[in-house]
Specification:
6-stranded antiparallel barrel, 4 helices, about 325 residues, disordered C terminus, alpha+beta, globular
Amino acid sequence: MPLGTLDRNPPPFFHQGPSALSRLLLAAALAIFLMAADHRFALIQPVRNALATGLLPAVRVLGLPVALVGGSADYIGGLDQALARNQALQRQLTAQAEQASRADRLAQENAQLRGLLGLRPASPPHSQVAEVLYEAPDPYVHKLFIDRGTQQGVAEGMPVMNEHGILGQVTRAYLLSSEVTLLADRDATIPVLNARTQHRAAAFGSGDEGQMELRFVAANDDVKVGDTLLTSGVDGLYPAGVPVATVTSVNRQGEGGFAHIGLTPVAKTGGLRFVLLVGPLDKKADTAVAAAVAAASAAASAASAASANEFGSAPR
């Protein structure tokens, strides 16, 4: 019999069970269902907490060689580098002396004004220092993990910053560690205030390393390259007046009448070892302060109206 006439179909014995395409569709549907259920009901959150807590010792052990190498390199850096840093710090302290005296004067004026308005002293938000464990290995997300969790009082939504400005915020808090989403991440959003024009806007992460975007800004708005953007504080999450980003490009030929504005975060993440976690702002205190200010304004308006009426009713 010629070879071309052989029956190459497998025997019926092997035609059992669903096809490969059916199994693929079933697995895809199950995966989509599990993702939707986890997003809606947080079904896998206990598993995430257990894995994050169990893997933390292994992460620390694996990070020891890197820490040792980095510490050795810093130690062998030499005396010249230490002297240069000392001189730079002395110059910085000299420059900050004037700022400190100016801040003291402003604090005294603020205390006097709050006393005149009958407001209680403002209390700064709680903060704590955390060490960076590692950055997310996924190149499509911009996140890092720190060694503070719910046991140390960390909660989702807490702002994270360093000495230069805002880095991002806590998006997931585990028992002994937390996940921080950086400003460059595609899902990051922060309300900002232009320090030069006092215009408010919203900055978004672009998904690229060290890049952000200022969206929904009119093409004729007063925005220039080099403008510094600060936190506006309107969201009640980030403290107001902290540097966020710098305008690096302005393209007024955007779509829909909006300009395309590129930003660069002022806080760099390269070589980052320690960050500062800022506790949630006291919303009750803010509400009380706002109510007191509104009451004082209403009282002043009423007094002005009464004076005007009395002056108008005086005999001529």
